[in-house]
Amino acid sequence: MATLSDIGVAAAINILSALIFFLLFAILRIQPINDRVYFPKWYLKGLRSSPVTSGALVTKIANFDFGSYIRFLNWIPAALKMPEAELIDHAGLDSAVYLRIYLIGLKIFVPIALLSWSILVPVNWTSDGLQLAQLRNVTSSDIDKLSISNVVYGSDRFWAHLVMEYAFTFWTCYVLMNEYEKIASMRLAFLQSEKRRADQFTVLVRNVPPDSHESISENVEHFFMVNHPDHYLTNQVVYNANELASLVEEKKKMQNWFDYYQLKYTRNKEHRPRVKLVLGLWGKKVDAMDHYTAEIEKLSEQIMAERKRVKKDEKGVIPAAFVSFKTRWGAAVCAQTQQTKNPTEWLTEWAPEAREVYWPNLATPYVSLTVRRFVMHVAFFFLTFFFIIPIAFVQSLASIEGIQKSAPFLNTIIEKKFIKSVIQGFLPGIVLKLFLIFLPTILMIMSKFEGFVSISSLERRAAFRYYLFNLVNVFLGSIITGSAFEQLDSFLKQSADQTPRTVGVAIPIKATFFITYIMVDGWAGVTGEILRLKPFVIFHLKNFFLVKTEKDREEAMDPGQIDFYATEPRIQLYFLLGLVYAPVTPVLLPFIIFFFGFAYLIFRHQIINVYNQEYESAAAYWPDSTPFLVILPILTIGFHRFCKGRYESAFVVNPLQESMIKDTLERAREPNLNLKGFLQNAYIHPVFKDEECEDDQYEELIEDSDDENCVVVPTKRQSRRTTASSSNPNGGSSQPLSCNQPDTGKGKPEP
């Protein structure tokens, strides 16, 4: 079990490592050759260019301004300088709200820590409960004298912990209430102020019923012209283009290889590069550029053929469509209402932003979604259940005795005091971190299998499961298995009625493990974030071997984005640890506070200078980010339900009033706006936007019309299942249906 000195050694090593990383980061970031690694966002915005240097080649690589090395921490005030309003304009509301979560941690835990250390720590320290516990063979260390474990059973001192628990809970609810109101207002203001986006006018329609007389596109057109005659504008059906997307991706790979060998040839024109035919590893050697040119031409022909097949094959059209409206108000009404008396057909939801559509899942049959999600629920249950085995192994390493049993060959090394402190302070946290390293990727794969159609919904589902996993395994699993290992001798020798009391004493003792985990996962993880070693290496390898144009260089410096599904559950776990251990073991709070402050500073710098978010959800993930409290269940569950009922709708739907205001302002400012031209191509699958796709092929995907205000809708159907009126009793094709006239089923429009 880690002692106070072990925790101190581990903390000192972490802080020293952070300072070294900061110094290394400060040196690397000011070198001209690394400018695109540490400031890629400004390059993508076109607001920064490569540093201009003259003279020898070495001056283009290294910075010889020694004054800049002295000012190696000047990036800190620069990161804090940008106001929040400017930050939202620069990086988006998602990024700004993400940073506010770290500030919420500081707002909650700094006052709680002051109260805990001024009231609870003296109460715990001056008691002698652990001395009595040692008589019952309960393992403890000097750090536990600061925890509730040191209070004698039945003592009146427990009233102090009870009162502080209520105070902590009320304070947390108060802070969260204010943040809910603030962020809900920020979201509405952001939606009102941002520029026009296609998703504001568009809904995703799924489970379109089949019609033997009309195609999916004609069916959708007819339905919405009848039922939304004043607001419907256009639609884009969804194609099953997964195979086509695979061909396009394969062509990109071949093109990259061709560019690589062409660059290699331009550097040495005496020898044309050659490559082996089978995976480049064995087989006959051929001319590399000729080989990849032939592969690219072959794939281009396959892509063109597949495009034609997808457009002509009725089975290639999914019973779903992106339907756009003339106004935001019309889209809001459609997205938030039931379309027919059959609740399983014509299902509508807000369309995700075009950039965040996860196209492969649009081809998933809607009827299979329930089965897929049930299968993933079962798989997640077993994943969570069986992971308790590595958690138990990690807890066996949480004490020197456990390490000696697991690795007896280390006995001679761990007897040294410093080595012992380092091992107890780092090893359990490092091993647990290694076990969890692939978990976010696994959970994201599971979310994709479930069929969610937007990246934000994929990330929210993966994040929710990651948090549940942390709650069950990292938190509860570590407490239960760790207590069992450390108090095994006590469990075996005492009577059954004494077991709950022993567990109650042992649980606060696990705070030392969580302190080491916070330092390894939180402190060290955030420190590594600022250095960007992996992007640093990848950029320079690509820059040396592949880059030959400015476009290639932009692709090489791709900064990526913050993976909310991996980072948010970690923040939620730290909220949970802080709120649970605040009245129990207050010594944990300074480590959490340091994490929140440290992470806020680092991620603010990264959001301003590095990350480029692929999509903008306008903080739709915020309701999933607020911590769920496990203390005082009735009060906290009631508060959770109140906030969910009061504020969640602001993050899920677009209010009709706000939509109408935005539409009115837009009509006043742009009376001649061609909205159909803006919307009709917004949701075409990316594989149809290839530069080789000719305009006439591209336009075949759109069912256009001549008159935007009054479109005549021809229909071939003999029945009128999408209208309230009866069908034409005589059969045959009906006359065209005017957008401003109801479908009467009489074969011609009403006068």
From TrEMBL:
All copies of domain CSC1/OSCA1-like N-terminal transmembrane, residue ranges: 7-179
Membrane topology: Multi-pass membrane protein
Source organism superkingdom: Eukaryota
Transmembrane segments: 6-28, 101-120, 158-177, 374-398, 418-445, 466-485, 505-526, 573-603
Compartments where found: Membrane
Domain called CSC1/OSCA1-like cytosolic: residue spans: 200-361
InterPro entries reported for this sequence: Csc1-like (IPR045122), CSC1/OSCA1-like_7TM (IPR003864), CSC1/OSCA1-like_cyt (IPR027815), CSC1/OSCA1-like_N (IPR032880)
Pfam families attached to this UniProt entry: PHM7_cyt, RSN1_7TM, RSN1_TM
Major place of residence: membrane
Key words, A-Z: Calcium, Ion channel, Ion transport, Membrane, Transmembrane, Transmembrane helix, Transport
Domain CSC1/OSCA1-like 7TM region: 372-624
Bias type Low complexity, positions: 725-738
Region of interest called Disordered, as start-end residue ranges on this chain: 704-751
The family this protein is said to belong to: Belongs to the CSC1 (TC 1.A.17) family.
UniProt protein name: Calcium permeable stress-gated cation channel 1
Organism: Brassica cretica (Mustard)
